[in-house]
Amino acid sequence: MRYYYTNKTLYVRGKFKAVSTGVDGGIREVSTLLNHTVAEDFDHEDPLQYIQGLLAKRGYDNDAFGLLTAVWMQNLCVLQFDYITVFVTAGVTNPNPDPTKPHTINIIVVSAEGMSDAALLETIITATEAKAHALRLLGRDFTGTTSDAVIAACEGEVVHTYAGTYTEPGKRIYAAVLHGVMEAVKRHEETVIRKRPSYFIYSRYGEEGWFEWIKEDCPYYPCGDESLGEWIDSTSLGTKIWACSNCRLLHEPKRARYLKEHPDAEFSEIRNLE
Q1: Which residues on adjacent β-strands are paired with residue 80?
Q2: How far apart, in Å, are the Cα atoms of 208 and each of 72, 78, 81, 131, 173?
Q3: What are phi and psi of 118, to 5 degrees?
Q4: Mind spelling out the 3-state secondary structure of 195-216?
Q5: pLDDT (tens digit, 9 = 90+) per residue, 9-52?
Q6: 59: phi > 0 → left, psi -120 to 50 → alpha, else beta; which?
Q7: Residue range 54-63, pLDDT digits in tens
Q8: How many other C-beta atoms can be found within 10 angstroms of the C-beta atom of residue 172?
Q9: Which domains, and CATH codes, for the chain?
Q10: What is the DSSP letter of 122?
Q11: CA 247 – CA 249 distance, rounded (Å)
C-alpha cells in the first residue's frame, strides 16, 4: 500500500481485496481507494461518474472505491497500529434525518495482512462500533450521520478469518477508529488546529499508547540520507519532499533501544551504531 493526498483528495493505492458501503459499493478487487472533498452544496446527478472523473485525471483505472465528504483533507487523520492503517475524516453536522445536510464520517481501514471476505465485512461492524463509542466519548447523543461510509481493504494471502473486537485485527481496528474519529472531529470543529493531515502511531515504547507524529517536531526529519529514503516530487506543493516510508533504521531493536535511552541523540549517532 502507498498513499498520498492533495488539497481535496486522499488516494490509497495498491492491490486490494476490498468492501465498501460508499458509492458503487460492494466487494471486489480494486487498485485505488479514495476520499474526496466536495462543496457543501454538492449535487452531482451521478456521483459514480464524478469519482471516475477524478480517477481519469490521475490516469487511474476505474477499479476503485470512492467516498465523498464535505470535510477538508487537512483535517484527515491517519493512524498506524502494526499492520492496520486507518484513514478518517469526520464532520458531524448532519445527525438528523435530512440527508441533504453537509459533512459525514468516512473511514477507510487497510490491513497489510490478508483477510477473508467475512473478516472484511466484519471490519465494517467493528469500525462502526468504534465510531459510535467515539461519538459517545465526545458527548454526542447520536451514533453517526446520515451519510457515513466505510471501506475495508487488505493485501496479501488470507491470514485473518475474523475481525471482531476479540480478534487481533479487530482490537487494532477498534482502537485506531476510536482514536481517529475523536481526533478527526476535533480538527474539523477546530478545537485542534492543523494545517495538514495528522499522523498517529500506536507505540509500545515507554508509555504505551497513541502518539501524534508532527514533522516540525521531529529532529530526524528529513534525515537526508538517500540510503534510507528519497526526495520525490510533490503533486500538491510543486516541490520535492522527503519520503522516508521505506526507512527501517529505527525498526532495528539495537537502534530503537539506543534512542529510547538517549532521546537527544544526533541522527549520525544512531546511523553509525554497529
Answers
A1: 85, 201
A2: 30, 18, 12, 22, 17
A3: -65, -40
A4: CCCEEEEEECCCCCEEEEECHH
A5: 999 999 999 999 999 999 999 999 999 999 887 877 899 999 99
A6: left
A7: 999 999 999 9
A8: 23
A9: 2-213 (3.60.70), 218-274 (no CATH)
A10: H
A11: 6
